[in-house]
Every structure is written in structure tokens, then in C-alpha cells.
Amino acid sequence: MLSISRSDLGDEDVLALIAELNAELAGRYPEEGANHFRLDPDEVAPGRGALLVARLDGAPVGCGAVRLLDPETAEIKRMFTRAGARGGGVGRALLAALESEARALTARRLVLETGTRQQEALGLYESHGFVRTPLYGEYVESAATSICMQKDLG
Questions:
Q1: CATH topology of domain 2-152
Q2: How does pLDDT run along the chain (154 residues), one tens digit per residue?
Q3: Domain edges within the chain
Q4: pTM recorded for the entire structure
Q5: Please, which residues have CB within 8 angstroms of residue 60's CB and are 6 or more apart in sequence?
């Protein structure tokens, strides 16, 4: 059974998932400056964001975070599903839970960055109503490797 719950950046399971994510991204994008790994604990603190862990039969299989960028905009960060759990709905469930967290933070718009070499991620986001948008923030200088997307939460 799949469950999704809040966690924090210091949790052992979260640290392991993020290390796997960082290794996968570094392998896909070996260029200098292509990866943006930063996420601070205060950005996912209650009232500012959330960090979620997906567990399948109790085993950690994915994670994702949402943080407020401004009073109306939230950003999805560190979205990841372990390779062995992909294709089973974990990413969809995490994305829906993160969207719910963004709404609870009263965000009216949800944004994210993904990579040009992550076609599976692009498909997931597009199937959830995200559309491409101009690069923003720290991604402005990463046009060769970054794709930014947004979704109106109405």
C-alpha cells in the first residue's frame, strides 16, 4: 500500500532519497552549473512549505517538496521516485499531494523546474496540467538544461 506523509530534511530516509536523486541528476547532467540541489530546512517548515515522503508497504520510494516563493506562488522541489518504483503511480500521488500542500499554503500558482533530459518527468507534469513557462530565478542561466513549468491553481 502506498502512503505519503510529511517529513523533514534530516530524516535518514529523506537523506538517502535525495542522495539518489542528486546522483541521478549528476549522471544525466554532468555539465558545470547544470544542477540546482539547494533546499533549506526553513523553506519546508510549517506555513512555508512541506517535504513529503512516499512509502510503498513501509519502504521509502519517493519524495518531493513544495515551498512558497511569494504569497501567491509555490515551487515544487526535489521530486523523485526510486527507479524500481517508477511507473506505479508514486510520482502521480506525490505530485497530487504536493499540489494539495500548495493549496493549503494559499498559493494560486505552482511552478517547477525540470531538465531537458527528463522526458518522463515532463510527461508527468504535462499530464497534471502544467505548461511550459519562461525560465525563472536560479534557472535563467540554464537554458540548455532547464525547462520551467507552471500550473494555475485558481
A1: Aminopeptidase (3.40.630)
A2: 999 999 999 999 999 999 999 999 888 888 776 666 778 899 999 999 999 999 999 999 999 999 999 999 999 999 999 999 999 999 999 999 999 999 999 999 999 999 999 999 999 999 999 999 999 988 998 888 999 999 999 8
A3: 2-152
A4: 0.93
A5: 13, 14, 16, 17, 53, 54, 82
